[in-house]
Amino acid sequence: MTSIPTRVPRGRLRITHFRSLLGTVPFFAYVAIFLVIPTLVVAIGAFTGDGGFTFSNVTALGDAYVLDAFGRSILLSAVSALIGAVLGAVLAYVLVTAKPDGLLRRVVTAASGVLAQFGGVTLAFAFLATIGLSGFVTVFLRDHLGTDIYANGVWLFELPGLMLVYTYFQIPLMVIVFLPALDGIKPQWREATESLGGSTWHYWTRVAGPLLAPAFLGSALLLFANAFSAYATAAALVSQGSPIVPLQIRGALTSEVVLGQQNLGKAMALGMVVVVAVVMTLYALLQRRTAKWLG
């Protein structure tokens, strides 16, 4: 005798489906509170003035000092992302060639996870204590080797110093995001290249290189967005002036000298949102291409 499958009532299916969605409520609440609502506040404020709707805040983004701030922010993000991507990719390759369960890979991977989030005031203080005007490395080089790293000016508190500090957390972040792509490269592909008479140069330029290029570019874009949106480290290091956009926004929102600039700050924040959105869209497209080949 064959058993007849029992039919689950439609109401019970709906209850089960509803219960399965309850687990996503905290996530969507978090996204709404910390992403959607602030974005709406910024977008609305960028087009709001004393008399209501206005384009004056957005048109003010064309002022020279705002364009300079965006230019310096893009330069800072691009340089730190490029250096971090190259050095991080090299370090990730070293980890791939090591034993998968070896001590080196476990230690470096764990350290990268910590150092990638090591930013803000803590990172600024670490660099001040190390290579600041009275940092122990600065004092040692000056007293024992006769080398003054600030002979041509205190560059740590300017754009070159920010590039150095930002690169510090860009390298471990690159290790984390690029390592899975390197793990996806199969040893059989290199063996096949060698069996066909190809050299190491042929393997990297015609096999592994083209496969890893989208992952590398996508990781570099992620590093760019990470640096472009960083605020706390720069705010802790730069006490005078606003060389980059996040500090310009801080000045517009908190300045007691020039009043009524809050909506201009929101317009600059909206400009940052647009830049990051474009970068992350390109990152998503490159990640999709990477998953197609290395998935």
TrEMBL record:
TM region positions: 21-47, 74-96, 108-141, 161-182, 203-225, 267-286
Membrane topology listed for this record: Multi-pass membrane protein
Keyword line: Cell membrane, Membrane, Transmembrane, Transmembrane helix, Transport
Domain of life of the source: Bacteria
UniProt key word Cell cycle: no
Subcellular location: Cell membrane
InterPro entries: MetI-like (IPR000515), MetI-like_sf (IPR035906)
Coiled-coil ranges (or none): none
Chain ranges of the ABC transmembrane type-1 domain: 70-285
Family that this chain belongs to: Belongs to the binding-protein-dependent transport system permease family. CysTW subfamily.
Name used for this protein in its record: ABC transporter permease
Gene source species: Winogradskya humida
